[in-house]
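Hi C.,

You asked whether I'd gotten around to modeling the 397-residue construct. I have! Everything is below, sequence then structure, no commentary in between.
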Amino acid sequence: MLRQTKPPLSDPLKQLVGQPVAAIDTPALVVDLDAMQRNLNRMAEFAKKREIRWRPHAKMHKCSAIARLQVQAGAVGVCVQKTAEAEAMAAGGVRDIYISNEVIAPQKLARVAQLAHRLADEGGQLAIAVDSREGVERLGQAMNEARRDGGRSAVIDVFVEIDVGHGRCGVAPGRPAVALVHEIRKHPALRFAGLQAYHGRAQHIRNPQERREVIAQVVRDAAATRKLIEDEGVKVPLVTGAGTGSMVCEAASGVYGELQSGSFLFMDADYARNERDPAQPHFEHALFVKTQVMSAGPQHAVCDAGHKSHAIDSGLPMVHRLEGDPELEYANGGDEHGILRPAAGNRLPEIGRVLWLIPGHCDPTVNLHDHLIVVRGGLVNGKVDRILRVDARGALT
């Protein structure tokens, strides 16, 4: 059994449970449990109606407790991007994990192989993506060495990643992918599991029709590659991919059998800038940085949540507007400060006023925090329901 090694929750954190929202110190990363649960239910219903599997990306929340909630709701397992993330999820009780990324370093592949065997011993399964012959050979060697050392016979599911337009990892669609499938089949500890076809940049194309047009080409590339493989007598069990921005397209394609959407659970300011596709469920903001005003001048106010509390790679956070709040704009104030300016005709908040920020990008924002403070009953009158550890924080290897 894999065990977590991080220290237990501190007494002050434990004592927060059951307390009103006002007791949460600032800045803090807070999850609106009611909104998160509605998002989870909508995703589960969407997948069930379309008879498609869903395997959400745990790299978004990095929390094994949330991953288990997703599995309980119907997810087949989770995706991660790093070996250390997979280890953290397994340590937290998740049993079906897909590293949807390439792993090349021998020391990491040794960990991958060991994890594959441990999960198999517990009735679970590990999968991984490849995009090169060298990657296949190194993975096969690591699995064989782990078999030899432990006397076990687990196999690892292997997806061939094709570059469908993201311009990052992935072998070219078509014949190059077919060649990799044949390489995988040479290794007894490797099992060809299908194609990984994910277009990350398409997730943030703002216009839904433009997103549909881009994903239509993605689907054509995936379908053509699958046909070439099957023409050579090899079954393609699954095509997996998609994200929160484009998932309605992949779900309707008839080609994809699994969705990897992750951000739907929390949503962020960047996704809020997308024009919603009418076919997509309405997902709510569920992740917030609680902050308060610490200083005020004639033209601006300052809050205590700077860049150390939220990521800015996808833009600055939005100020969440609750009933009665002035409309505010957040500007760069540095590591520990946020500059708040009123929208036209609005007033500045007074010193001590609590505000809620919607991060620009949820994934790296979560990675800045050790814990998620989960609130039930809303951001105004709610109470702290539980404290969740960000198990995979800093899991970079």
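If it helps when you're writing up: The mean pLDDT is 95.

Thanks,
B.
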